[in-house]
Fold this protein.
Amino acid sequence: MIRIFNDFSSQLFAGFGWTILSSLLTLVFSLIFGILLALLEVIPNKTANRIGRIYVEIFRNIPLLIIVMFFYLIVPKYFVQIDGFTAGTIGLFLYTSAFIAEIIRSGIQSVSQGQMEGARSTGMTYSQAMRYVILPQALKIVIPPLGNQFVNLIKDSSILAFVAGFDLMYQANAIASVTFDTFNSYFVIGILYLVITMPLSYYMRHLEKRMA
C-alpha cells in the first residue's frame, strides 16, 4: 500500500483533485437547482408542479450510469463536444438535483401551513413568505438527509471512471492495470475517499446540532 502511494502519488493527488472539483461543482449547482425544483413542486401552480414532478421522477428512476453515458456518447456525437469530466459532472448534477429536490420538498411540506398563513397575514407576498419564513425552517429540518446526500454524491462521483474523468476511481483502475496489485490499489483509493467523506459527515453532524 505504501509503495503504491509513493510510486503513484502524482496520479493519486490528481485524481483526488478531480474528484473534489467534480463533487464541489455538483454540490453547489445541484443544491441551487434542487431548491428551484422543490419550489416548482410546491407553489400554487399546477403546470409548474407537473414540470417539477416530471423532472424528479425521470432522473430519480434512471440509473446514473445511463445519464452519464448519454452526455459522454450522445451529446458529443450530435450536439457539442465535451470531455469525460464534463459529461460525468453534468450527469451527476442532473441526477443529484432530483434527490435534493425531493429532500427540500419534503422539508417545505413538513412546515406547518399556519406559518405560511401567518406570514401572508402580515402583508408578505407568497415569494417573500417562502423566502423568509418557510425555507429557513425547511432547511433546518432537512440538514440530516442533505448531509447523507452530499456524502453519497462524493461516492457517486466514482462514475467518472467510466468516462475517463480522471477521478480517484479512474486512477485506481489505471494503477491496478499497471501493478496488478488490485487490492492495495483500491485500498489506497478507499482511504482517500474517507479523507473526503469523513470530515463532511462530521461537519454535517456538527451543523445539525447547532441548528437544533
The CA atoms of residues 176 and 183 lie 8 Å apart. The chain has a mean pLDDT of 92.
